[in-house]
Design brief:
The protein starts with 9 loop residues before the first strand and ends in a 25-residue tail after the last strand. Strand 4, helix 6 and strand 5 form a beta-alpha-beta unit. The strands form 2 sheets. It has a 5-stranded parallel β-sheet, sandwiched between helices. It has a two-stranded antiparallel ribbon with strand order 2-3. The protein contains 9 helices and 7 strands. It folds into 2 domains: 135 residues, HAD superfamily/HAD-like (Rossmann fold, 3-Layer(aba) Sandwich), CATH 3.40.50.1000; 91 residues. The chain has 240 residues and is α/β, with parallel strands linked by helices. Helices cover 41% and strands 11% of the residues. This is HAD-IA family hydrolase. It comes from Paenibacillus sp. SYP-B3998. Keywords: Hydrolase. GO terms for molecular function: hydrolase activity.
Length: 240
Amino acid sequence: MRKPLQQYQMIYFDAGDTLLTIPAAQTILKQYLQLRYLDRDETHISELFTEAFRLFYYVNKQDSFEACTPDSDREFWVNLYKYVLHKLGIHEEWTESEIHACCHELYDIYTAPEYYELFDDVKPCLERLQRMGFRMGIVSNFAPTLKTILESKGILHYFEPVIVSTEVGLEKPDPAIFQLALNQAELKPENILYIGDHETNDIWAPNQVGIDAVRILRYSYHTGEGIHSLLELFDNQVKG
């Protein structure tokens, strides 16, 4: 059992898959390929995205932290998209240079505001936390477009600071990004709660600097301990 919510002064959030998501990522890719005369099954695309996330994103990286840049973020996602396209057999019809260009286009599509949606519990949670007097911030591994996306969804004003990996040069699970969050909040670790979806990035990493963390399980392939809605934060005890 963790401390009651009222014993914290500030709540930091992850962004992607915690506050917002692209609910139709597989549809976007299917339509993108159809416009280029390639037809692939949408269910298969969805399965491959899940597989790619497990292989590339939901991994245990607790050492060898590297500096984060807009280019390194783009490279990570381009490689993930390449994996999906190869599994779809696109390399049998396109050259590697065509696939490479396609993956860069997909990165621009998937980091633009248009396709993002907030989870249903986000605005009610933020409004309630604001009424209760909590300070709120964000610590996120994301493209430099994050603030534009948050503004377009009407929630940017809730957060100060918004710490984005590609802007500060640090990337979760490097605990240094959470030390930066502490410094900017000017609070002690025990006064801050962090909420995110990734077991290493969002639980292990903040814990290294003394910040309590709660994992939110947004998808069926998320397993382990955590909450399934941000509104569960308002239960008598925050469960980790």
